[in-house]
Amino acid sequence: MTAGIDATHDPALCSWVDSANDPSIDFPLQNLPFGRFRYGGEPQWRIGVAIGDQVLNLRQAGLVDHDDMNRLMQSEPRERRALRQAISEGLCHGSARRNAFEAALVAQSAVELGMPCEVGDYTDFYVGIHHATEVGRQFRPDNPLLPNYKWVPIGYHGRASTLQVSGTSFHRPMGQVKAVDAAQPVLVPSARLDLELELGIFVGQPNAQGVPVRMEDAEQHVFGIALFNDWSARDIQSWEYQPLGPFLSKNFASTVSPWIVTMEALEPFRQPFLRQAGNPEPLPYLDSAGNRARGAIGIQMEVVLQTARMAQAGHAGDVISRSNFAEAAYWTIAQLIAHHTVNGCALRAGDLLGSGTLSGPGEEQRGSLLELTTGGKNPITLSNGERRGFLEDGDTIVLRAYCDREGARRVGFGECRGTVLPTFEGTGA
Ligand code: CA
C-alpha cells in the first residue's frame, strides 16, 4: 500500500498556472496526471503532466532525462512519489523553479495527445456485479450470475492493437450474427452497437514471470487509472461468446482517455472495501487488512451521449448514466493484480486492465445501453426527442469522472470521447 497523504494533497495549494486554480477544473495542482503529447508535425511522443489547461513537458523541465513513458511507469513507488513532489513544488505558487517550468509549458489545445503509453497487453475484467447480473439476466434468464462470479475476478485477454486514444472515431463493425428464429447466421453490420463505462488500470512496476504479486504489494505495481470505453457489438457477442467468451464483438475499438490519474493522486479518495452480507469473503490470496481498510476508491463517473443532430445544433449531449466505482465494483484493483498474477503470469509496465462495465445498482446508473434500454426493448428518449436503443452512426459517447470529498481538492480524469462512423466500405488498400 502507498504511503498515504502528503504535502502534495494539501487542498490549500495553489499554482502559478492560473487555470489550475479554477475549482471546477479536472487538473489542479493536487492531480498531476501523466500522458503523452507531441508538437505539430513531430513524430516523437513526449511525457507530459496536465496542469490546468496546460501540459508540462517533463524532460524540458529537467524532471526526467528521456521521453519514454513506459520506462517512467516502471519506477519504484518511492521514485514516483519523489517525482510527484518535485512537479508539485515546481508548479506551486512562489516556486523558485517557476522560470524553468514556465518555459516547458504548452497549452493542451496546441498539442496532439496520444495513447498515454505503449500498451503491450490488455486484459478486460468484469468487476461490475450489477452489470454482470443484469446482462446475465438477458443472456441467461434462469441463471444470471454464474456460480464462479463471487469467487473469481472474471476476465479475458483482449487486443492491445485496437486501443485508441480519446477523440478517435471508428467504423461500425461487420460481424456474424444469428437471429433466434433464423436457420443460419449472416454477415452484417452490427445493429446492436453499445458502449461500456469502464476504468482502465495501468500497470507500473512489472512482476517476474512465475512470481505472484501478494495483496500487500499489489498496488505498488499499479501506475494509475484512466477512463475506458469498451465498445461492444451485442448481436455479434451473443452469437459468439460461448464457450470461450467475447472475441470479435469487443476487439474492433476501445477508447482510452489521454491522462493517467496516478494512484498517489487518488490517495485522498480511498474507502474501506467491505463484502455485503450474503456474499462470501474472498479467498485468503485475495484478502488483506489494507484492502479491507482502504481497497476501494470513490470515483464518480458519467456517460454523455451526443447524437449527430445534437452536434449540428451545438448541443453538448445528454448525461444518460451516472455511477460510482466504489459502489459498482465487486473486486478491488489490488485483487485484480493479485488474481492476474497468482498463476505466475507476468504483468509489464503499460499493460492495461479494463475494470469491466461499472453499473451502479439503480436504473439511471447503468453503464451500457444494453442495460439502460433492456436490450433495446425500451429505448431511451433524449432531450431533443430522439430515441436510442443502441448507437447509431454519428453518435458520440463521452465518459467523464472525478473524485471529490470534503477536505480534499477535487481531481478529474478529463474525457474519453469516441464517435461511431458508418461501416467501412472501401478496399482497405
Ligand atoms: Ca468490457
Spans of 5+ residues with little confidence (pLDDT < 50)?
Answer: none
| CATH architecture field of the largest domain | Alpha-Beta Complex
Shape: globular
Q: Give the C-level CATH assignment of the largest domain.
A: Alpha Beta
Let me know the number of strands. 26
Mean pLDDT: 96
**Sheet having the most strands:** 8 strands, mixed
CATH superfamily of the largest domain: Fumarylacetoacetase-like, C-terminal domain
User: In terms of structural class, how would the helical and strand content be classed?
Assistant: alpha+beta
Question: How far apart are the first and last residues' alpha carbons, in Å?
Answer: 50 Å
What is CATH's topology name of the largest domain? Fumarylacetoacetate hydrolase, domain 2
What molecules are bound to this protein? calcium ion
Radius of gyration: 21 Å
Tell me the fraction of residues in β-strands, as a range. 25-35%
Q: How does this model look, in words?
A:
- The strands form 7 sheets. Strands 6, 7, 8, 13, 14, 16, 17 and 22 form an 8-stranded mixed β-sheet that branches.
- The mean pLDDT is 96.
- By secondary structure, this protein is α+β, with helices and mostly antiparallel strands.
- The chain has 10 helices and 26 strands.
- Strand 25 and strand 26 form a beta hairpin.
- 17% of the residues lie in helices and 26% in strands.
- It starts with 33 loop residues before the first strand and ends in an 8-residue tail after the last strand.
- The chain is globular, with a radius of gyration of 21 Å.
- The chain folds into 2 domains: 7-113, SH3 type barrels; 122-421, Fumarylacetoacetase-like, C-terminal domain (Fumarylacetoacetate hydrolase, domain 2, Alpha-Beta Complex), CATH 3.90.850.10.
- The chain has helices at 69-73, 77-91, 98-102, 129-139, 234-240, 289-294, 308-312, 325-328, 333-341, 369-372; strands at 34-38, 46-51, 54-57, 105-107, 112-113, 122-125, 155-157, 163-165, 168-171, 174-177, 186-189, 193-194, 197-203, 222-229, 232-233, 254-256, 261-262, 270-271, 296-297, 300-306, 318-324, 352-354, 380-381, 387-388, 396-403, 411-421.
- Bound molecules: calcium ion (CA).
- Calcium ion binds at residues 124, 196, 198, 230, 354, 356-357.
